[in-house]
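Holo model, uridine-5'-diphosphate-glucuronic acid. Inputs:
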Amino acid sequence: MYKLSFIGLGPVGLCTAVCFAKKGFTVIGSEMDEAKARQIRSVKPPFYEPNLKELLHEVIKNGNLKIVTSNEAAVMKSDITFITVGTPSNRDGSINLQHVTRASEEIGRALRKKKAAQLIAVKSTVTSGTTLDIVIPTLEKNSGKKCGNGFLLCVNPEFLSEGNAINGTFNPDYIVIGGYNEKSAKPLETLYKDFHGENLPPIVKTNIPTAELIKYVNNTFLATKVSLINTIANICEKTPGADVTKVAEAIGKDHRINPYFLNAGLGWGGSCFPKDLKAFIAYSKKLGYNPTLIQAAYKTNQDQVKFAIQKVKDELKTPKRKRIAILGLAFKPNTDDIREARSLKIVSQLLKQGAAVTAYDPMAISNVKKILKKRIRYASSAVECLKNADCAILVTEWDEFKKLKPEEFTENMRRPILVDGRRIYDPEKFSKKLRYIAVGLGEPLKPQP
Ligand code: UGA
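Output:
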């Protein structure tokens, strides 16, 4: 079995490393942030991900996963090295490659000391051209070796979503291998065959620039699909009797459309869609092409948070001095991640307009506190959050919010007004008991004679 190393232990690096270690591979995870490395070694994952802590405990204890802070040591003791460092945005939205470049330099220097031809697999999300123009030349310069012979190279993007990263690693829909040459692709194919056994998903083999592109296209497609259904939601709201959830339920039955990523709401956030669409737009423009559809998907998403603010204004005239309850802060359920979360945009608008905001989230409060500090109040339960509120906005569709009954709103709020930003409540049931406004829901039809 190949020995593996992962350079960078963010969500992708750590979850993938842990899953390979769970299947019996010898894995070395390299994290240059010493505090973070210590945390991982003592089985305290730096972020929440279902099942991660349990698996991490197991593989640290049985020794299958070792955590180091030196990229050189990681390369020296493994056969395949995955680059899993972050690729944040520059100010203009384009991709920032400083971590990828630094990792490539350090891996290159280690390769110089190695006899065997190491395989380097780029898992970080990088725009087309990055691997051929930056990663390979940097590796070659620092190692004194030639790609394809002295060392091997593949682009091997990941499609993990937060909250499902462990399950997604064990059961991906497909695997992409963009090999520098056949000799490079072969070991990675063998590795995935060993890892997945009889459940091997389809493997798409291609060249390096296409593999890099596939990652962006996958995210762009999904984000655009959500922006499209949000556009339909906005049209539904202006159509008496219309309901976007019924529209989505119906069109999702067309197998060419499918039911996934058709949940209308306040828009997409997280560390990937916003960053990757911006980078893809910047990449495309650099090539001299204006990707108008992708730009529109991005702009639609920016505008979507206005729904919540507008509804508060429609109902209360102004948010000024009104108490607004925010249910949900994480960018989606089952994570404590608040990067690009819609909640932060909504709260900052409300604060600007003079509202008093109280928020509750099952997991993300400590992360939000670091940013908003005492500018809002934090509740320790949904019901406490609703107390004396003039309006509640449901921002993240956590399971525990789905269980709330209309009475919990009517009995605790000063004015029982609910803006359902994720369509989790039954309009019929809720409309009977309180003022219920929801994304993609037109005004009720007048009773037919
Ligand atoms: C996304 C992709 O789904 C992964 O395939 C990809 O690997 C990952 O980005 C990445 O590039 O690393 P993630 O950001 O974790 O994963 O979360 P998603 O489940 O895709 O949700 C993204 C956003 O879209 C969330 O804010 C979610 O609330 C929103 N969304 C999703 C909707 O508003 N409606 C939907 O129907 C689905």
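The chain has two domains: 4-206, 241-438. The longest strand covers residues 175-179.
Archived with the compound record.
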